[in-house]
Design brief:
InterPro entries: Ac_CoA_lig, ACAS_N, AMP-bd_C, AMP-bd_C_sf, AMP-binding_CS, AMP-dep_synth/lig_dom, ANL_N_sf. CoA binds at residues 313, 525, 586. One of its GO terms (biological process) is acetyl-CoA biosynthetic process from acetate. The chain has 650 residues and is α/β, with parallel strands linked by helices. It is 30% helix and 22% strand. It has a domain at 525-646: ANL, C-terminal domain (GMP Synthetase, Chain A, domain 3, 2-Layer Sandwich). Helix 1 (22-34) packs across helix 2 and helix 10 packs across helix 11 (312-324). The longest helix is centred in the N-terminal third of the chain and has 17 residues, at 112-128. It binds adenosine-5'-triphosphate (ATP) and magnesium ion. Adenosine-5'-triphosphate binds next to strand 24 and strand 25.
Length: 650
């Protein structure tokens, strides 16, 4: 089990006119490393610049002389690149397909021409509200077309957007508004998720009353559900009213490549979220180029990424990458389980989706319900699948490949972070035969390396901490308001390199496997065991839906292994099954990986973006539930209570 040896090359007939082949990948990769300036200078030409950059890269990752600059004398406007630029040839092409929460409510299709008008009207309205270049605007919206419009309108006038996931509480919203001193908040009356209303405007009202939230001068409110809300005179404005009389044209702000585009807070899997800042030229170049290469984008594709716009995946691969590339992108308001667990698949048929990109957490959840909901839909339009967010268990990978993709769609397992702006490691679909569970190969310009605890490079096959040498245009530029934290967090552990925080293994073929977060690695009697490996072994068992592994202090072994297991629907916990699962892990990985404790988990604590929060599980395993730390980004805090109750007390 430690090494899944089978490989999955793209099926015959997959390649299209622009598919990157293995030979091309090797050639371009070499070019990108040998002469990054030439390589990224050429790539930047895919954008439309007011002034093309002549200085490509100015980077020094040593903490004493630190700088990261890309295209620093270039000038452009991001919204012009995502909308105006397409008007000549694609004015009538669908830019956005909106699929509402309720499958029986009408879906919407918005052309590039219509998108242009909507963006310009809102941009004008924001300017009238006093928003200008460099001002921060918090966006707290449901998954609607206007979420994309809001981002692009900010970009058009040079305002820095900060999207806050619509599922966050008033406190989490207030933390972010306060941290970035937002001048305006854009929200909706209510959101809709699985038929339930989410009180967005009421949450904004509550957030703005919390201590030290004083920066907000105006709130723009989209009418979405028509639900009853309070409007505060002087502060609150209806979107449709402020845009009604604005012209459908708006002079874009001429931005420097290094001017900030947005601030986005990380998921908070490992602690307090960081306000990641991305800039304009480098970010858009990287988002659009990776989107085209990774998804082997074709003009006729219907592309659907199921992430929320509140996460970086929503920014780079729902809005900026696809729209910069003139693609058709789907925005889905709902959830995979509503009205039932065939929703993804029937929606793929409905909109003839050809590229589908989702997260392992969703795949594992849908696997629990078996094949039948998938088989309800034909999925004939699909040609490529993708995954992001966590290591994908090989078992889940195979299900995605065989059941969802009918064995004919390559899977791109994209490893990246909020900090990286775009995908950094991936098996490009026409170039690299995938191995289930592996991120495989670096994207162009990306130089991964593995280091041990002493900072020594690990050569050849081995496992260690994943660092990146050099820079790429989509790299974050700072932690908003705390540049020192940026340097301390990412560039101090291994000076001169970017430390990802992730553990990684390189196999004998030179392919990369993310093993989980470095903080989560379990060290049993000197053997380092990745959480991904343990969890994948458990998920391999026919009765297991999901699992999480953490370490706890052990007198003899240094650390012991504590696992949490969620069973598939209909399976019942028993002592016998517990023993069977422990033996199963032992058999699949080896005696060293035998779990000391196995706790049944009706559900696992996850971030709002669906990632397992192991740091919380670690505290429970360590019998220290009073030290759970920041749980504000937790999706369902009640999950924690029951796990605390049922924990093994040693
Ligand atoms: P925080 O940094 O606040 O703790 P986070 O790391 O979960 O939160 P993100 O930037 O959303 O915030 O997630 C990036 C992380 O997600 C990566 O560092 C990695 O651990 C994990 N990840 C993302 N994609 C993959 C993938 N394809 N394979 C393995 N791990 C992945
Ligand atoms: Mg992180």
């Amino acid at each position: 089990m430690t090494e899944v040896l089978d490989r999955y090359p793209a099926p015959a007939g997959f390649a299209g006119p622009n598919t990157i082949t293995e030979a091309e990948y090797n050639r371009l990769y070499k070019e990108s490393i040998d002469d990054p300036d030439a390589f990224w200078g050429k790539v930047a030409k895919r954008l439309q610049w007011y002034k093309e950059p002549t200085k490509i890269r100015d980077v020094d990752l040593n903490p004493d002389n630190f700088k990261i600059k890309w295209y620093e004398d270039g000038e452009l406007n991001v919204s012009v690149n995502c909308v105006d630029r397409h008007l000549e040839k694609r004015a009538d092409k669908t830019a956005i397909i909106w699929e509402p929460d309720d499958p029986n409510a009408p879906a919407q299709r918005v052309t590039y021409g219509e998108l242009y008008t909507r963006v310009c009207k809102l941009a004008n309205a924001l300017r009238k509200l006093g928003v200008g270049k460099g001002d921060r605007v918090t966006v707290y919206l449901p998954m609607v077309v206007d979420a994309a419009v809001a981002l692009l309108a900010c970009a058009r006038i040079g305002a820095i957007h900060n999207v806050v996931f619509g599922g966050f509480s008033p406190t989490s919203l207030a933390d972010r508004v306060r941290d970035c001193d937002a001048k305006v908040v854009i929200t909706a009356d209510e959101g809709l998720r699985s038929g339930r209303r989410v009180a967005l405007k009421a949450n904004v009202d509550a957030a703005l009353q919390l201590p030290d939230v004083t920066s907000v001068e105006a709130v723009v409110v989209l009418r979405h559900t028509g639900g009853d809300i309070e409007m505060q005179a002087g502060r609150d404005h209806w979107w449709h009213e402020v845009t009604a009389n604005e012209p459908g044209e708006c002079e874009p702000e001429r931005m420097n490549a290094e001017d900030p585009l947005f601030i986005l807070y990380t998921s908070g899997s490992t602690g307090k979220p960081k306000g990641v800042l991305h800039t304009s030229g480098g970010y858009l170049t990287y988002a659009s180029y990776t989107h085209e290469c990774v998804f082997d984008l074709r003009e006729e594709d219907v592309y659907w990424c199921t992430a929320d716009i509140g996460w970086v995946t929503g920014h780079s691969y729902i809005v900026y990458g696809p729209l910069a590339n003139g693609a058709t992108t789907v925005i889905f308001e709902g959830v995979p389980s509503y009205p039932d667990s065939s929703r993804f698949w029937t929606t793929i048929d409905k909109h003839q989706v050809s590229i589908f990109y989702t997260a392992p957490t969703a795949i594992r959840a849908l696997m629990r319900d078996g094949e039948e909901p998938v088989k309800k839909a034909s999925r004939k339009s699909l040609r490529l699948l993708g995954t992001v967010g966590e290591p994908i268990n090989p078992e889940a990978w195979r299900w995605y490949y065989d059941v969802v993709g009918d064995g004919r769609c390559p899977i791109v397992d994209t490893w990246w972070q909020t900090e990286t702006g775009g995908c950094l490691m991936v098996p490009l679909p026409g170039a690299t035969a995938a191995k289930p569970g592996a991120a495989m190969k670096p994207f162009f310009g990306v130089e991964p390396a593995l280091v041990d605890a002493n900072g020594e490079f690990i050569q050849g096959a081995g496992e260690g901490n994943l660092v990146l040498l050099g820079s790429w245009p989509g790299q974050m530029r700072t932690v908003y308001g705390d540049h020192q934290r940026f340097i301390d967090t990412y560039f101090k552990a291994y000076p001169g390199m970017y430390f990802t925080g992730d553990g990684c293994r390189r196999d004998a073929d030179g392919d990369y496997w993310i093993t989980g977060r470095v903080d989560d690695v379990i060290n049993v009697s000197g053997h380092r065991i990745g959480t991904a490996e343990l969890e994948s072994a458990l998920v391999l068992h026919a009765k297991v839906a999901e699992a999480a592994a953490v370490g706890f202090n052990h007198d003899v072994k240094g650390q012991g292994i504590y696992v949490y297991v969620t069973l598939k629907a209909g399976e019942v916990p028993s002592e016998e099954l517990r023993k069977e699962l422990v033996a199963h892990v032992r058999q699949n990985i080896g005696p060293i990986a035998t779990p000391d404790y196995l706790q049944w988990a009706p559900a696992l604590p996850k971030t709002r973006s669906g990632k397992i929060m192991r740091r919380i599980l670690r505290k429970i395993a360590e019998n220290a539930p009073e030290q759970l730390g920041d749980i504000s980004t937790l999706a369902d805090p009640s999950v924690v209570e029951s796990l605390v109750q049922e924990r093994f007390i040693r």
